[in-house]
């Protein structure tokens, strides 16, 4: 059986590009590294490297060994985690599904606060599609958008809480004709090229389409992305205009400005859904409290 310690050293040599650099990275002497890989080569029974000048070059066999052994170390990490769970009991996990701006603006401080109080909790943060998407499945906590003009979203086995509501803002390039305006009506935008900020057709994006419909037209989308940073970059480049909620435009790039939207004002509702089966855990209730506090302070 191969020695996993020597195998790890060989992977370090391949990744580092030289014995000397691997030694520096691992805080070993080059002589120690050389001894380990010589012994590994004997154990393998195949040439792992060729000497070239004062260094070595991995052979195809050596490269293949380094590549294929990655799964070995992944499996060892999983085994160590399993044994750790058996010794101490399984680590509690909390899965949160949310949209990208909540993941950036709210989640980091929430995770930090929860793990300070509950150090064993392991978080998994996922960017969720629309709750009616075919590939959607609910997480322990779900932060998602709703259209206030439609009935509230209900998820069996979950309790729903209203977090906040926010008005969308028009996002335009700084040299756009409406830049600097106090407000713009939706009807003023009928001939504009639009950058769609929600190509997955979630409620957050449908809110904008409905506001355009209410003003008597369909938006003329010339580009689109579910990544609001990409949307802002396209607006800055003059591709078109867009409409985004305040949470998504905390960091406006140079060359972009916002204008209030009226007649009608697109508006979204942000809600938190909590799985009933995990609500009794103290760390889940703490996370809920922190999410509510962040939403109300936004």
UniProtKB/TrEMBL annotation:
Keywords: DNA-binding, Transcription, Transcription regulation. It comes from Brevibacterium marinum. This is DNA-binding transcriptional LysR family regulator. Coiled coil: none annotated. GO terms for cellular component: protein-DNA complex. It comes from the Bacteria. PANTHER family: LYSR SUBSTRATE-BINDING, TRANSCRIPTIONAL DUAL REGULATOR HCAR-RELATED. GO terms for molecular function: DNA binding; DNA-binding transcription factor activity. Residues 2-59 form the HTH lysR-type domain. Gene3D superfamilies: Periplasmic binding protein-like II (3.40.190.10), Winged helix-like DNA-binding domain superfamily/Winged helix DNA-binding domain (1.10.10.10). Belongs to the LysR transcriptional regulatory family. SUPFAM superfamilies: Periplasmic binding protein-like II (SSF53850), Winged helix' DNA-binding domain (SSF46785).
